[in-house]
Automatic annotation (TrEMBL):
Lineage of the organism: Bacteria, Pseudomonadati, Bacteroidota, Bacteroidia, Bacteroidales
UniProt name for this protein: DUF2264 domain-containing protein
First and last residue of the signal peptide: 1-22
Keyword vocabulary terms for this entry: Hydrolase, Signal
InterPro entries registered for this protein in UniProt: 6-hairpin_glycosidase_sf (IPR008928), 6hp_glycosidase-like_sf (IPR012341), DUF2264_N (IPR049349), Glyco_hydro_88 (IPR010905), UCP014753 (IPR016624)
Domain DUF2264 span(s) in chain numbering: 379-742
Record Gene3D superfamilies: 1.50.10.10
Species this chain originates from: Bacteroides mediterraneensis
Transmembrane regions: none
Pfam families: DUF2264, Glyco_hydro_88
Amino acid sequence: MKQTGKFLLACAMGLCAVSAGAKDSEAVQVRKMIEKVNQHWQVEHSPEVRAFWDNAVYHTGNMEAYFLTGNETYRTYSETWANYNQWKGAKSDNRAEWKYSYGESDEYVLFGDYQICFQTYVDLYNLAPEDRKIRRAREVMEYQMSTSQNDYWWWSDALYMVMPVMTKLYKVTHNTLYLDKLYEYLQYSDSIMFDKDENLYYRDAKYVYPKHATANGKKDFWARGDAWVLAGLAKVLKDMPENYVHHSFFVNKFQHMAQAVAAIQQPEGYWTRSMMDPDFAPGPETSGTALFTYGFLWGINNGYLAEATYQPVVKKAWNYLSKKAFQKDGTVGYVQPIGEKAIPGQVLDVNSTANFGVGAFLLAACEYVRYLEAPQTADRTYWCDLAYRMAAPVLSNMAKEELQKNMQLEVSPTWDGRNKKVAYMETFGRLMAGIAPWLTLSDDDTEEGKMRKELREWALKSYTNAVDPQSPDYLLWRQEGQTLVDGAYVAESFLRAYDQLWMPLDEITKKRYIEEFQQLRRIDPPYTNWLLFSSTIESFLAKVGVKFDEYRVNSAIRKVEEWYTGDGWYSDGPSFAFDYYSSYVFHPMYLETLQAMKDAKVRSRIDYGKYYDRALKRAQKYSLILERFISPEGTFPVFGRSIPYRMATMQPLALMAWYEKLPAGVTSSQVRCALTAVMKRMFATGHNFNEGGFLTIGFTGRQPNVADWYTNNGSLYMTSLAFLPLGLPASHPFWTDAPQEWTSVKAWGEKPFPKDHQWKDEIHTWDLF
């Protein structure tokens, strides 16, 4: 068994390698540059140096290199630095003397140059959560937020140094004050140093035009100063929830600034130190160019910037970074020394290097690797191929109105006699709930993109046929209580891909769905998880803006709260059942009900926002449990009813990965590798599909004896609910970060792993009126 486990682990981890492809050679070259640059720096420099900004910027790049490569030497180097600094920035404990003007001594605790270190401390905390790692960060930032001042960020550098600290700590604490203060502080920064006409920042108020100008009378935008901002905005958007009230403000700022920066790139690929006056301080500069390149690449990789527009900008910039700034021995040259402005006559050459310049180079290089390798990661290819194999027989037939004609139907040996046509609605609704996030991604010319486009086109036709009474594939909306369940999965698919799957439907089809959803009120749901099927449908109707039943939503919420047993688990009704219905229904549909009510801006007695925040923390705890359930061999415990739902057991873990809200101690990389190991263990033989290409009843193959009386092979398409992370772009760290061992692998391999503990509700809420 031990050898089998090692073999399966090797297979799972091997999946994280990059497949062969046209861009491979360049990606490999860039990886070698990262290794050479970082090893050269670490060999030459001790990590036991102060936590001031210049060193801390290097560590932001070093941690990115660790996540991409998995090189434990890099992580150890940053952890040694953090320990040396006692996980602090400036070290004064006397709050009465804390300052935020410029200063390098220990009383400058509130000065952003002594706060950037918290970015790395949070990263290290998320790998192995221990309170001591972020205790000082929270103390300092939460004290700062408690003051009446909003002028902490009086120079542009601070927007890289501290903005990402705020979003990183928000992700750990879920305290929205971090986001609100981030927005407030940035408003002040904008008021003193942002040029609205140019969409660029002056380094600080001293340099605002026309009070200050270059020797040639032009506006003086310092490249590294603006690069701090663009890179900082990318890091903010990485961690800021899309539903945050000011999210669009940050998106617009990032996009407009990127456009402005791209327009003044030099033909050689770099940006001169005075960006709009190349003659004032001519010649290349690396730190600003690298940070801009990181910002552009992150924007492309995450869908905020159009690849067709910005790829040429990146190509020229990387050409400069890799062929002029990068030296054969691993030195990063042409870095302007510490300063705050473009200086005429200042000479930069191959020997002009600095810690922050190396960090900026690493950031750009790592993001470039993600860009290059995105179309070819083997894990994602495997997931996509499996999802397509599962979905194509269903959607290709249903798009042609032939699903009910051609599906090879199977029912439980103990079938309870209900109309077998419920199977088709189960098949369609559950499948679409699982693959909907994948179909939200934009089209491209990759093999995956072609599959995704085909599935989306089939799906939209299938949605139309599903509610057309004249279609042979009109689903069983008006018979059997079971239709409430799978109507909810159809509604859930719309919630998960509202703009891509609901909005494109024609008005007649939308009207039909609304009527079908509303007539499901004829069904009195049993006193179990079924209450959430009603609430999911009604909250979707609320989001659409039509008549909905508030009582069905709120009564379900109240019952779910009564049934919460603690530490991430829900009881399925008044009596606890040891099964996976917390996975199948409770966590996802409860969160989605609450989110839809928030989206609809419904005001009722229930504070949906606070309920959502509490439910999210419970889901995080439960996802942590699921990750620990996955054995080193890629298996998980088989217990409880509905076990033929297979990978649906892992839905909350997949959901937290898709939401980018995994709990500390559980990285996206280890989740990817763990889920891939389970998929391979479960689907490797091919016995999960019957002769018609449809799922067959069983757990790891054809095992009809494990079916419950309500099980048919349409029910089994719930297994697609583990595919939610396909909604993350191919360049996302979930897919591109180096493989990491999941908890059970570490535990059974005699390696350090995070200890577990009980999670208690910390958010309490009462009726609003």
